[in-house]
Amino acid sequence: MATDLIKAHAYGNDFLFAPDEQVSAKERGELARSICDRHTGVGADGLVFYALNDGGASMELYNADGGIAEVSGNAVRCLAAIVASEGKDTDKLVISTGAGPIPLKLLEVVGGRMRFEASMGKPLGLKQRCLEAAGSTMEVVELSVGNPQCVVLGEPVNEESLQKFGPALSGHPSFPEGTNVELVEVESSSRIRILIWERGVGPTAASGTGACASAVAAAAFGGASRQLEVVSPGGVQQVNWTGSGIRLTGWAEVVLKGCWVG
């Protein structure tokens, strides 16, 4: 059966969106694996099943490997852009996720891109711990920003380190449900640079929740401020960690509407 699709991305972190009612729950994981394949499918970091509602939309996210993810900051903004493109009211826009509701505010529209500020909630379980991974003993920062995160502040932020430590930490026994991994360099008190290994995906050009987790870890344990530019291969997002929670600002863009017949 054909499935309607929308493709959108935020800083190269790309997602496919399918109407919730078109695919049964038992078929979704396999469809995600097929459709996200970059050679035999459409290609994406994840597949989102969504439904519009009066306040915005609800979403269920599957990673490229077919596993369910609680939330994605970039997918939330992409879905908000879809909602806005449908002419819905964006003054009080809320996206319901597996990690709870996320309110967003549309800040501006530039060309085909929409810039949003999202209220991502408060970080939970923030702590440092020592782990052995890939033959090394390292100190990491563990926390949740709606999904599990493992942030490394002390290793070189390069592709070699990402390929070495990303899969080793993402599937580490200490994280039975898996975790997202970020390597972080504090470039200044107001700017950090990150590389991302996404659980169930691998390297990604950007991550909204990864940017939030990296900013919190850098502020708590790396000498950075709580208001940061977070630089990833796909571009720069802004994170502001306040007493009321984390605010994530960045753009999203709808790039394709089509139909999957595979």
Can you describe this structure?
By secondary structure, the chain is α+β, with helices and mostly antiparallel strands. The protein has 2 domains: 3-120 and 250-260, Diaminopimelate Epimerase, Chain A, domain 1 (Roll), CATH 3.10.310; 124-242, Diaminopimelate Epimerase, Chain A, domain 1 (Roll). 18% of the residues lie in helices and 50% in strands. It has 4 helices and 17 strands. An 8-stranded mixed barrel has the order 1-2-3-4-6-7-8-17. The termini are close together.
Descriptors:
alpha+beta, 262 residues, Diaminopimelate Epimerase, Chain A, domain 1, 2 domains, globular
Order of helices and strands: EEHEEEHEEEEEEHEEEHEEE
Q: Mind telling me the C-alpha Rg?
A: 17 Å
| CA(first)-CA(last) distance | 8 Å
The third-level CATH topology of the largest domain is Diaminopimelate Epimerase, Chain A, domain 1
In short:
The protein is α+β, with helices and mostly antiparallel strands and 262 residues long.
Task: Annotate the secondary structure layout.
Layout lengths: L2 E8 L2 E7 L8 H9 L9 E8 L2 E8 L4 E2 L3 H13 L7 E5 L2 E11 L2 E9 L2 E10 L2 E9 L3 E5 L6 H12 L9 E9 L2 E8 L3 E3 L3 H14 L5 E6 L2 E8 L2 E16 L2
Parallel strand pairs: 2-3, 4-6, 11-12, 13-15
Antiparallel strand pairs: 1-2, 1-17, 3-4, 4-5, 6-7, 7-8, 8-17, 9-10, 10-11, 12-13, 13-14, 15-16, 16-17
